[in-house]
Amino acid sequence: MALTMMSVGAAAVISMQKTSMQSNLDARRGDVAYSLLQLWVERLRKDAMTWTLPSPTNPSQSNFSSTQFLKSVPSGWFAPTALAAASPPISPGFDILGRDLPQASLANAQFCVHIRLTYLVNNTTIGKGGIANSQDNLIRADLRILWPRSLSDPSAPVASDGVCGTVATADIPDPSVYQSIYVTTSIGQNTTQ
């Protein structure tokens, strides 16, 4: 009788340990994912620092094309292009430790950042007195990071081209396959006053 009670108790403890370990792993992946998402928010803000024209002192020119990620505002979600020449390299895909992956390895990414950019105010918006306020440009940036629900299970269904592939264009990736975190911020033109 005592042996039976001990085996039931041991089975419960082993089950509790397994659940605890899985919860710790999920929390760790969520922490890494959130850190990477914040990294990309800062990358977009840094990119906006090169967007300085038009300005009140130079209203006729625009250097928006000098930005790396903001210059093309496609409709819908996209995985930004990796910048291998940057030091350190900049990529939308990351390995399990949160390190940027080169473009050639994006199919093996464990985490991938996707971006959706929308103009809130652009330089054709008419301001006070019917004059275009080109220095009031503002872009809404929606960012999300996806990672497979089960990194430890290689048989889990994931897109054949990885989390940085075709799933990037999906408005709502399959929640039974991917975990995600979303963040929204605004990015403004860095005008000189």
Commentary on this structure:
By secondary structure, the protein is α+β, with helices and mostly antiparallel strands. It has one domain. It contains one helix and four strands. It has a four-stranded antiparallel beta sheet, with helices on one face. The longest helix is centred in the N-terminal third of the chain and has 47 residues, at 2-48. It is elongated. The mean pLDDT is 80.
Topology:
Blueprint: H1 2-48, E1 93-94, E2 111-121, E3 138-148, E4 178-188
State the gist of this model.
The chain is α+β, with helices and mostly antiparallel strands and about 190 residues long. It has one domain.
Beta strand count = 4
Question: What is the average per-residue confidence, as pLDDT, rounded to a whole number?
Answer: 80
| Shape, per Cα inertia axes | elongated
Beta-strand percent range: 15-25%
Structural class computed from helices and strand pairing: alpha+beta
End-to-end gap: 83 Å
User: What's the main sheet like?
Assistant: 4 strands, antiparallel
What's the helical proportion of residues? Answer: 10-25%
| Assembly status | single chain
Number of discrete helical segments: 1
Please list the strands of the largest sheet in the order they lie side by side. Answer: 1-2-3-4
Count structural domains: 1
Key traits:
single chain, alpha+beta, 4 strands, 24% helix
